[in-house]
Amino acid sequence: MITHHPSLLRPPVLTLRAGALGWRPTAPAFLSTTVSAPPPPPLLRLRPLRAAADGASPISGDGGKRVVPPPSLQAALLGFVRSNFLPLALVGGVILGLLDPTLGCLAHKFSLSKYSTFGIFVISGLTLRTKELGAALEAWPAGLYGLASILLFTPFLAQFVMQIQFFPPEFIFGLAMFCCMPTTLSSGVTLTQLVGGNSALALAMTVLSNLLGIITVPLSLAKYIGAGAGVSLPTEQLFRSMVTRLLIPLIIGKVARETSKGIADFVDRHRQGFSIASAVLLSLVPWIEVSRSRSLILSLEVKAFVVALTIGVILHLALLAFNAAILQVLSRLEQKGESVFAKKEYARAVILVASQKTLPVLIAVVDQLGGALGESGFLVIPCVAAHINQIIIDSVIVNWWRQRDQHFANTK
């Protein structure tokens, strides 16, 4: 009869290591009378360790964990490109148009920008997951404020932008139009997820603002831009264009996703590929517009670009400050319990999403205006810069929020 647990007789790790050296410890005498010794373990053949490339041992002194080598330069560059593909694609399109406008002018001749905009919103519909929208119902007051800020309050800033005297005036017109746009299609939701905000609320504001923007954008442009520039914008034509080039492709993509589980699964497995395709399609438009206006763009002073870039940065910081201040005020108005506006996950979602503006809708609008406000290239360039700036600024803010949350978690 066995009177002792086998693990007390021969620890397997000790036996294995000792056996590798050609010596096997025996059980104590008072145990060997009651339990027969197990068969000796097979001898292990020691293999020479392969030297690491940097001369370091693969075994560290922190418990035997393998030292992870630093990523190579190629891997680091590839990771950077993947994480920043959209701004790199937009900048690349502008540079390519300035270097050689031939292909861009040819693409304009065949109206490639119209098909690229259509493709962008088909992809948006394919990648749009709306099952989480119900989770945003709890925060409906925050979502309602977010929609009002995106579609009503921030477009109101366009009339102040229009008061800036600047040459070329198209730079100012473009930034003022940018104020009238709905929120971004993906970056706001992505940044909300990174910072631990309520992604369902962010997604709800994104979907609804872009759908309602089909109605509000033409009206805002006519009220704040057309009147300020002294031109009459084709509001009805703009509305029809946004329906055919934005809403219909979005519905096509969404219907395809909802009616076919295979398509939905394929899109979800290759979301990064679809994101890259959307970025490439989006970069085609500034490439085409810059190619068309290359001679005029090169005639401008660098100072004009720097000033337009600065105005775009100030504009985005103003939107962030405005939304943060209003949420702070609203959080103090509710007396019973914790206000929805005071909850960190809701407030951050609203601040990020309500302060960003989308570039694809603006590009569709500029293409439809047909030069009513001046050179299309001049209208697009400051907005491309403003779009890139808002992603960079909000990424810095998200990183700061995450570091602060980590600090608070460590001090508890």
UniProtKB/TrEMBL annotation:
Its main location: membrane. The keyword Cytoplasm does not apply. It is a multi-pass membrane protein. The chain crosses the membrane at residues 75-99, 111-130, 142-165, 171-191, 203-225, 273-290, 302-326. GO terms for cellular component: chloroplast envelope; membrane. The keyword Kinase does not apply. Belongs to the bile acid:sodium symporter (BASS) (TC 2.A.28) family. May function as sodium-coupled metabolite transporter across the chloroplast envelope. This is Probable sodium/metabolite cotransporter BASS4, chloroplastic. It comes from Digitaria exilis.
